[in-house]
């Protein structure tokens, strides 16, 4: 099972001074094209709200799906290093992390991965232990 829920605030840079609105619009159009090619049956949305672009995504499949939503976070980190966001992932096929919700953190052009302490360990935090 592969479940994920996330968001990204898309920004060209971490500073507000010197923001190039035309460059940000180019970045958003590139991301819009990439997202359209992903053809996800799940939630994958890019929209402008109050003058800023945001990506929202979520899904639940039997296995880690392709194209990989994790790659989308990495791509945003490269082309828009001022972006920030979180992706919560539960993947029961991720060796060593089968009983955890993992959080991918996007900030300042970098990605880091963490265990989500509020939802981990999944058993017993989210589910009862399996009893035969």
UniProtKB/TrEMBL annotation:
Q: Name one Pfam family in it.
A: Imm7
Protein known as: Immunity protein 7
What is the scientific name of the source organism?
Answer: Streptomyces griseochromogenes
